């Protein structure tokens, strides 16, 4: 707690600005076809860490804020681990016995599995254990989006109170990757480890997804993460929005992400 208080005293002089410099970005309208063929609106942004080049499709949406949905599990994990509310990635939280729509959530599980299956009840319990005041302090300290954690402590990232832009997500990912957030290095590593989804000789793909509805009832979806090839890292954010309730955003967000990455020459180990 002393460490957190010292950090908060330092914040006014050096706020953590997550957003990337969008005025340096290169617009790539060729990506529009992937959103059109999936009948969704959205944006894509990527940062080549080696060159600093930023590529964006749909700059307007890239700088607008939306509910982070389950991408907030990245930060919830960081805060939970740093404060000891999550002992480690193997800490089990017992199932409360309430049957939910996602059968994968209806059992006891540890943080690693909860992150992989995006178990909302697990992370709601983590947030309750962290508490509103501590959560607000950490959200303020990292300058996360609009920093609004109003409403119930276990749903502010789902109820359209807390919001963050794709551009800000990109900045957060880079700071996480390079251990530049105000958390212990071991905490950074634990979260990076659970974000790793695909690992082979050609590439490593790490990400977290998110799914929610905005205030107008539009479905929104996220894929935020990075891809590594030949020890070269690229950070990316895919955001999609669809008014059609029948749109399978879970599939669409990944289809678009994989299609864009393939267009840019990834997955072959040649980048």
Layout of secondary structure:
Elements: H1 2-10, E1 26-27, H2 32-37, E2 41-48, E3 54-57, H3 59-62, H4 73-83, E4 92-93, E5 109-110, H5 111-116, H6 120-130, H7 132-142, H8 166-177, H9 185-195, E6 196-199, E7 204-213, E8 219-229, E9 232-242, H10 249-263
Parallel strand pairs: 1-3
Antiparallel strand pairs: 2-3, 2-9, 4-5, 6-7, 7-8, 8-9
Strand composition percent: 15-25%
Looking across the biggest beta sheet, what order are the strands in?
1-3-2-9-8-7-6
Q: Helix and strand string, N-terminal first?
A: HEHEEHHEEHHHHHEEEEH
CATH topology: Beta-lactamase
Largest sheet: 7 strands, mixed
Number of strands: 9
Mean pLDDT: 92
Broad shape: globular
Structural class: alpha+beta
Low-confidence region ranges: 1-18
**CATH class annotation:** Alpha Beta
Q: Percent helix among the residues?
A: 25-40%
Count of the domains: 1
Name given to the CATH homologous superfamily = DD-peptidase/beta-lactamase superfamily
If classified by CATH, what would the architecture be? 3-Layer(aba) Sandwich
Distance from N terminus to C terminus (CA atoms, Å) equals 43 Å
The DSSP helix count reads: 10
Radius of gyration: 18 Å
Task: Explain what the structure shows.
- This protein is an alpha+beta fold.
- It has a single domain (2-263), classed as DD-peptidase/beta-lactamase superfamily (Beta-lactamase, 3-Layer(aba) Sandwich), CATH 3.40.710.
- It has helices at 2-10, 32-37, 59-62, 73-83, 111-116, 120-130, 132-142, 166-177, 185-195, 249-263, and strands spanning 26-27, 41-48, 54-57, 92-93, 109-110, 196-199, 204-213, 219-229, 232-242.
- A 7-stranded mixed sheet has the order 1-3-2-9-8-7-6, with helices on both faces. It has a two-stranded antiparallel ribbon with strand order 4-5.
- Helix 4 packs antiparallel against helix 9.
- The longest helix is centred in the C-terminal third of the chain and has 15 residues, at 249-263.
- It is globular, with a radius of gyration of 18 Å.
- The protein starts with a helix and ends in an 8-residue tail after the last helix.
- The model is unreliable at 1-18 (pLDDT under 50).
């Amino acid at each position: 707690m002393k460490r957190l208080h010292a950090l908060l005293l330092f914040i006014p002089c050096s706020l953590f600005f997550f957003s990337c410099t969008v005025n340096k970005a290169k617009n790539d309208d060729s990506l529009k076809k992937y959103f059109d063929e999936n009948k969704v609106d959205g944006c894509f942004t990527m940062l080549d860490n080696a060159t600093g080049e930023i590529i964006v499709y749909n700059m307007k949406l890239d700088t607008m804020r939306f509910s982070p949905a389950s991408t907030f599990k990245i930060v919830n994990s960081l805060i939970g681990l740093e404060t000891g509310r999550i002992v480690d990635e193997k800490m089990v939280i017992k199932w409360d016995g309430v049957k939910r729509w996602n059968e994968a959530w209806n059992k006891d599980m540890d943080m690693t599995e909860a992150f992989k299956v995006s178990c909302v009840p697990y992370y709601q319990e983590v947030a309750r254990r962290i508490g509103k005041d501590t959560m607000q302090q950490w959200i303020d300290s990292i300058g996360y989006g609009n920093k609004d954690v109003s409403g119930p402590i276990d749903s502010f990232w789902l109820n359209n109170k807390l919001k963050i832009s794709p551009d800000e997500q990109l900045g957060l990912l880079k700071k996480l990757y390079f251990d530049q957030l105000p958390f212990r290095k071991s905490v950074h590593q634990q979260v990076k480890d659970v974000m790793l989804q695909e690992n082979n000789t050609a590439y490593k793909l790490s990400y977290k997804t998110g799914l929610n509805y905005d205030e107008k009832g539009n479905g929104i979806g996220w894929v935020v993460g990075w891809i590594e090839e030949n020890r070269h890292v690229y950070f990316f954010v895919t955001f999609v929005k669809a008014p059609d309730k029948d749109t399978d955003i879970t599939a669409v967000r990944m289809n678009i992400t994989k299609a864009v990455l393939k267009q840019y020459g990834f997955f072959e180990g040649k980048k």
